[in-house]
Give the backbone structure.
Amino acid sequence: MPRDWISEYGDYLRVEKGLSSNTLAAYLRDAGKLRDFASKRGQPLTGLGREDVGAWLRHLRGQGLSARSTARALAAARSFFRFLAVDRVIRSDPTDNLEAPRSIRSLPRYLSASEVEKLLAAPDPETPQGSRDRAMVEFLYATGLRVSELIGLTLMQVNLELGIISCMGKGNKERIVPFGPAAASALLHYLRGYRPGLLGKKRSNTLFLTRRGARMTRQGFWKILRAYGRKAGIRKPLSPHMLRHSFATHLLANGADLRSVQLMLGHSDISTTQIYTHVTRERLMKIYGRFHPRA
């Protein structure tokens, strides 16, 4: 029976690379697309050459895949073939020196400080769900957490006395993120006044609970946030990641250094964080153009 290289590759990514479940799923999905393409051409995965992989990338683009998604697919293929090369299944990597299609990196969308204030004022803190939602939005903006990190928080990860969160991010990498008194106050209000009622007779270490006392889903919180965005009169298509972008943009605009923001966001590469410097630069140019008499 032939070996299932995709399955073995998945085990390698999970155990040795420690990828998050979402990243792992994306890599395996792209590797599966490559396998299907090879199968239609009557070729085994281990027999693909540079021209074959190039044809696959052109095929993806022809199906309407964006340049960014095609570049991600090439990254997955490159990772897969390196795995095969290390195990000496193939002699050479067909993705060596193969370039991904260039993509224009769009600037992250973010909220203004006044829009954030309107959003924070939308939940009613004197109801169980409103108190929870206010605390969640405060924490998202105060820490720049990813939504998966936010909904996965446990009671043990939050230190109210020190004002810090111990967060487990991508690749199972732990980082410490501070939060301010506004977030601490909202969280304390929720913990003391309403979390026990949401929990009921159940036992759970999860910080933010649903009405049934369970852990909230990413999709569930996304819907909640969008509803508050409409209530606050925010016309932008609101998402949890937009608050993460707002966190980083506002920090840099107010003088924070890039390295500190990188650490708080949990970016492994500072080039990922540098996109926010373009946002603040663009904002400065708009202000200049609007107010300078000679602009």
